[in-house]
Design brief:
With about 525 residues, the chain is of the alpha/beta class. The protein contains 25 helices and 14 strands. Helix 5 crosses helix 10 and helix 22 runs antiparallel to helix 24. The protein binds nicotinamide-adenine-dinucleotide. Nicotinamide-adenine-dinucleotide (NAD) binds next to helix 14, helix 15 and strand 7.
């Protein structure tokens, strides 16, 4: 260790604070800088969690944890890993949404990397300023569509920071490999632009060529400076999300979590729900409420699953029904984008509720950002022709959920198989307690990222997301299903990520998309890569 004394305590990666031993204090010039007692990491974690639990609000907990990350990285990750179900809603959705809304107001310390239009022509140069040369995972957003909260401009930086914490906590990706990036190309949120405390580029967003060329400069600069890095595109508006994915998916190592990660976790939920209803995927009719990047991404992956079952593309498409704010998406509707048009059905125009009555879907998936839209009538109608209607209310944060867990169980008289995007507390109905599963992308992206790193993938085809979905579905136990949960326990996340990484890595070798020579033992190679925050 080349640092000494106070510099060690100010370096979060090496700081152990009160856990430095008496010998270390002597050797490292720390005598006098720390209290007498030497505490174990275990005891430190107890102190951290006790401190968190006495905070009044989730935002205060978020700030506390964020400061811990800046002070003592290993203690931060070790605490998160020990208390993942409790702390994930703090470091990620829903609290991260509130943190982003207030980001400029709660800003304390430089974290992550900001690129603005002023950096045009010099992005590769400024990437040199990042303190680490071997970056392996970049989460980048332009802040244009943060969770379900809309355009938060540069305040969206909380999302890449939070996501990367989950890469480390969830799959053991070394935090030094991780780089959160804000492509701050303006904001169309006028309230932000006129807020004197707003920290971002206070102009309207770049559009069209001016926008695309900045993103391209960034992507190419990453290839030049960090050629092994996986780029995760996060929370871009649907058009840009699809446009960027189509442009880069097979050119560079990248994926879009809103499209592909969501698709994968929802597909995992569908596979388990089908199992829980003792039916077959082939027998399902799936209706999506909301036809944005989440829904169309899920639909595309499920179509792949149907194709694997021997369906033709047309037969697979006939299983998918999409509803947007104008009602059922039907052939001949004016102004349909290509993305939505692909899912248009031969049917007359109907409203959402009439579409349910007419189509009689077995599975209803909400990804609309339209809170409360699965009304009593919707849930009762779904329950009238399904013994166990499958209803996913995926919109985040909680206030945007299409319905809350309690209503879903109550209105369906306990028949529903329910999952949500944001966490819900268990619900007791008629003496039975249901534990709603959270269809959280965190089950997917850390494991995919670990696989990409482990094999130095050239690029990620869509099929890796189907591989990951199957691994997650296979991890659900009968006891989970008995409680009404269709996702595995969050406490198993690290092990699930490892299994995903192994399965996806094998798949990438089969497809010849790995740039690293195949290690003798892939499992050991992956296990050895996993960061351990113990001192
Ligand atoms: P998006 O903006 O791309 O799409 C939203 C879609 O909903 C659009 O097609 C819009 O037309 C439609 N819509 C809006 N209001 C509607 C209404 N009143 N009736 C019907 N349709 C309506 O957003 P997205 O990326 O698809 O995300 C949608 C929601 O899904 C967000 O709330 C997001 O938080 C959530 N989401 C959840 C997960 C998860 O749980 N794992 C993952 C990704 C996204």
């Amino acid at each position: 260790m080349d640092k000494k004394g106070i510099d060690i305590l100010r370096e979060p990666r090496i700081n152990k604070s009160t856990a430095f031993t008496t010998e270390e204090k002597e050797e490292l010039g720390l005598r006098g800088l720390l209290p007498y007692a030497v505490t174990s990491q275990q005891l430190q974690k107890q102190r951290v969690i006790d401190n968190i639990r006495i905070k009044d609000t989730d935002l205060q907990k978020y700030i506390f944890l964020s400061q811990l990350q800046e002070r003592n990285e290993r203690l931060f990750y070790s605490t998160i890993m020990d208390h993942l179900p409790e702390l994930m809603p703090i470091i990620y959705t829903p609290t991260v949404g509130e943190a982003c809304q207030k980001f400029s107001h709660i800003y304390r310390i430089a974290k992550g990397f900001y690129i603005s239009p002023d950096d045009r022509g010099s992005i590769a140069d400024i990437l040199e300023n990042w303190p680490v040369k071997d970056v392996r995972v970049i989460v980048v957003t332009d802040g244009s569509r943060i969770l379900g909260l809309g355009d938060l401009g540069s305040n969206g930086m909380g999302i890449p920071i939070g996501k990367l914490s989950l890469y480390t906590a969830g799959a053991g990706i070394d935090p030094s490999y991780c780089m959160p990036v804000m492509l701050d190309l303006g904001t169309d949120n006028e309230a932000l632009r006129t807020d004197p405390i707003y920290l971002g580029y206070p102009h309207v967003r770049l559009k069209g060529e001016a926008y695309n060329s900045m993103v391209d400069e960034f992507v190419q600069a990453v290839q030049q400076k960090f050629p092994k890095a996986l780029i995760q595109f996060e929370d871009f508006t649907t058009d840009n999300a699809y446009g960027l994915l189509a442009c880069y998916q097979k050119q560079v190592l990248c994926f879009n979590d809103d499209i592909q990660g969501t698709a994968s976790i929802a597909a995992a939920g569908i596979f388990t729900a089908v199992q829980a209803t003792n039916s077959l995927l082939e027998d399902q009719k799936i209706m999506f409420y909301g036809a944005g990047s989440a829904s169309t991404g899920i639909a595309d992956l499920i179509i792949k699953a149907f194709l694997e079952k021997g369906f033709s593309e047309a037969d697979a498409l006939s299983k998918i029904w999409m509803v947007d704010s104008r009602g059922l998406i039907v052939k001949g509707r004016e102004g349909l984008s290509d993305i939505k048009g692909r899912f248009a059905q031969h049917h007359h125009h109907v409203s959402f509720i009439d579409a349910i009555r007419s189509v009689q879907p077995t599975i209803l998936i909400g990804a609309s950002g339209n809170g409360g839209s699965f009304t009593r009538e919707v849930v009762e109608t779904m329950s009238s022709f399904n013994e166990h209607p499958v209803i996913f209310a995926l919109s985040n944060p909680t206030s945007k959920a299409e319905c809350v867990a309690e209503d879903a169980y109550t209105w369906s008289k306990g028949k529903v198989i329910f999952a949500s995007g944001s966490p819900f507390e268990p619900v007791t109905y008629n003496g039975k307690t249901f534990v709603p599963g959270q269809g959280n992308n965190v089950y997917i992206f850390p494991g995919i990222g670990l696989a990409a790193l482990a094999v130095e993938a050239a690029y990620l085809p869509d099929s890796v997301f189907l591989v990951a979905a199957k691994v997650v579905a296979a991890e659900v136990e009968q006891t989970d299903l008995d409680n009404g949960t269709i996702y595995p326990k969050l406490s198993l996340l690290r092990e699930i990520s490892f299994k995903i990484a192994v399965a996806v890595a094998h798949h990438l070798y089969e497809l010849k998309l790995a740039r690293l020579d195949r290690p003798e033992n892939l499992e050991t190679h992956i296990r050895n890569m996993m960061y351990d925050p113990a001192y």
